[in-house]
Amino acid sequence: MTPLIGISAGVKLDGSFPVHTVSEKYLLAVVExxxxxxxxxxALGAERMDMADLAxxxxxxxxxGGLSNVEPHRYGGGPSRPDTPHDRDRDSTTLPLIRACxxxxxxxxxxxxxxxxxxxxxxxxxxxxxxxxxxKHDHRSDKTKPWHERYAHAHPVTLTPGGYxxxxxxxxxxxxxxxxxxxxxxxxxxxxxEAQAPDGLIEAVRVEGxxxxxxxxxxxxxxxxxxxxxxxxxDGFAKAVHARADARVRAILRAA
Length: 256
Known about the structure:
Blueprint: E1 4-8, E2 10-14, E3 17-21, H1 24-34, E4 37-41, H2 51-57, E5 60-63, H3 88-104, E6 108-111, H4 113-121, E7 126-127, H5 147-150, E8 155-159, H6 164-169, E9 173-176, E10 183-184, E11 191-196, E12 202-207, E13 213-216, H7 228-255
Parallel strand pairs: 1-4, 1-5, 5-6, 6-13
Antiparallel strand pairs: 2-3, 7-10, 8-9, 8-11, 11-12, 12-13
Helix pairs in contact: 1-7, 2-3, 3-4
């Protein structure tokens, strides 16, 4: 059975009407990186969707990046600055869905904003302006540059010795892109650090005890899954989602 992989959508206004959107690069990454069928999860919130039921139907969940930031009241943070972009509907969907998927054992791959959502959903906090924190670097990209330059490698990350990424990649350090203004402050309970930037900012995590529940602060979906780091990450995700899909088929056949 082809794995069904949920992909988190964001909400934008098209005139007066909300539009639920996902960048095509995430859809293609799922198809090319896992062989699964991408299913866009609309940002309708837990009040309109049964997250536990949805989690049981999914074989994987890809949490996308986005231009908005998680609302700070969701993690006990101070008020946002007036010009901060937020997506209340996305937050009210992804945060409970993450918890439901972890509870159900659904493989989760969280990218950029998705990493931050994963941390918040499990009880962690965020830096709202990483570049203003003492000792931290500016992790934002230069928006005056073309996209291919913004997504180029920006800095190294050090992999945790003996961690999932270090063992999978067989190296101590890799180069990654960097296009984010927020980042993990206090790590959520149950998350394990997998990689850190030179300034100590957490760049990758995994959920302890799960077959595959990994988050990275960089954009592993772009520009190409031929990138050695991206390939390892999507190969791991693919293995986990296919295993879950196979298990669901066996359960259906047993019940027939």
